[in-house]
Amino acid sequence: MSVFSIHSATFPSSHAALSLAAQAGEVIHDHAEIARRLAALGVRFERWQAAAPLPVNADAQTVLAAYREPLAALKAEYGFQSVDVIRVQAGHPDQETLRQKFLAEHTHNDFEVRFFVEGRGLFYLHVGETVFALLCEQGDLVSVPANTSHWFDMGETPDFTCIRLFTREDGWAAEFSGDPLPASFPSLEGYAAAVSALRR
Ligand SMILES: [Fe+2]
Q: Carries keyword Flavoprotein (predicted)?
């Protein structure tokens, strides 16, 4: 289930961050409400359905065909030049390098658009003195605006397949801020466990 939560960037304890957010009513599970909150940050958040059931580990062509219609609409709206499919599962040869790279706070000079075909991933957006956590699951489309500080955790045992869209053929580069903030926030596994504990 997708989850969105709001945290102070200056709060020092990762373990208490979620319960504090929950006390303030700022752990949100309702998709429409998450979308509304994110829209205020310039983030697009939607649910997409595959046109036909997708086999597990479908190849890129099959994945793109299953989402042809919403992809075509998004391409027409934003002029995306390229689309690819990235799959990272436990045992991927570059999993730790890939994980560490995007765990560091960074920005892009173009927006970052991801659709979760399978699996899940945790985005953190850092805006002013606030950190917004967004746990995405299968079926979620998210766009992080250009120049918005963020980081992404695929987890210690990554398992996701995403469609990525780029407005340039050469994709985008990440600008790293060097801010140590990500270390103060839960990993994907820690966040998911804390959210489940809150719901019990
Ligand atoms: Fe990014």
A: no
